[in-house]
Amino acid sequence: SAYRLCIMRKLPSVLARTLTSGTSTSPGLPDMSEVRSKLRDIVGASTNWRDHVQAMQERKALHTLLAKRQEDLPPRRMKDSYLEVILPLGSQPEIREKYLNVHNSVRFGRILEDLDSLGVLICYTHTKQEMQQRSPLSIVTALVDKINLCQKIIQPDCDIKFTGNVSWVGKTSMEVKMHMLQLHDGDYSPVLDATFVMVARDPENKRPAFVNPLIPESPEEEEIFKQGELNKLKRIEFSTASLLKMAPTAEERNIVHDMFLNTLDTRQEREGTVSFRSRKLPPNSVWMEDAKLKGLQICHPEERNIFNRIFGGFLMRKAFELGWATACSYGGSRPFIVSVDDIMFQKPVEVGSLLLLSGQVCYTEKNYIQIRVHSEVYNANTREHHTTNIFHFTFISENEVPQIVPKTYGESMLFLDGKRHFTAVMKEI
């Protein structure tokens, strides 16, 4: 099975720094609602939608607090940004309902929202200036590099603990490593590891802004920092080799050609009239065009983040739920999430947008289903469509699933892209 024991990377062994004197059951540990209210305080976000324009105007004045050079900012250590947060599903049953799915386990989409909020708060903790109550930085999620799970099912009635810290820093970007653990028989056991990349921008979220450098303090931390550097290089390499920029490799071209030959009508071959046009589906297969689902979301003010754009965690939850439904209807049984990787946030989504989501099965192998969810906003006034995100999810189904078969060249490229993502995930786990 792909679910392996998570080896928790050595984190700075420091006590969690409390954000507020928490009301949660673990003494001193804040819960997710405190994380969100803390974020609102840091940027001065209004809880009333009607005041959002004025709140954004007030942020303009913070421009003067931005550093002109990274060297002007005090370096920070990994333990300076280390946070622990509790999700008290066991001790506070009243919050359980929001996290519950029909299979009586935890909704993974909600966990994605929590990870997104926590990642942003960790970065604000790293960049905090002692004398200032409000941060001049707008910190937003640029990329979910990867989330790997080692538990198939997350229990709905046991406390969850999130931990995390900044693990690598560039000039204007930060990598955050987070871990999620769940309480079983008095011990917290690992559920998932997540790596997010956040970017810092000016108070109006228009231009990049410098962040505090990070100083590793031990060989373990040196290793974690080096891994962050490698992750960055890997992303550049993956993007450079994108099928939108470069032709498939020789091996990939052979795969596509073999699949194509496999769909030609052999009856015609016997009659000596084989045609490129006449295609038939091989046994136990599904055409790619028949393995997609679409969804529409109206983006209401309720889903806004502290900068009055649509919250990235909400977009991830909606994309995940559509991806899950696509995998469920394709495999005919309950799918379990194995990995999330390479989610690029290309454009912010404005409140009031029409969000169009499209889920596609793009690669299958044994019990595994690789899903790609494409999200775009539609502007009803200009009638224009803009891609905002591409999401990649790897699911495992209870039973073996049919083979997905592309018919067109475009679908073949989606198939190869899905195969690349799947292969990268399998290497990790």
TrEMBL record:
| Source species | Sinosuthora webbiana
Gene Ontology molecular function: carboxylic ester hydrolase activity; fatty acyl-CoA hydrolase activity
- The HotDog ACOT-type domain is annotated at 81-204, 289-401
Query: Is this entry keyworded Manganese?
Result: no
Instruction: Cite the entry's keywords alphabetically.
Output: Hydrolase, Mitochondrion, Repeat, Serine esterase, Transit peptide
**Gene3D superfamilies from the UniProt entry:** Hotdog Thioesterase
Compartment annotation:
Mitochondrion
What GO biological process terms does the UniProt entry carry, in alphabetical order? acyl-CoA metabolic process
Write down the superkingdom of origin: Eukaryota
Cellular-component GO terms for this entry: mitochondrion
Query: This protein is called what?
Result: ACOT9 thioesterase
Report the sequence similarity comment from the record.
Answer: Belongs to the acyl coenzyme A hydrolase family.
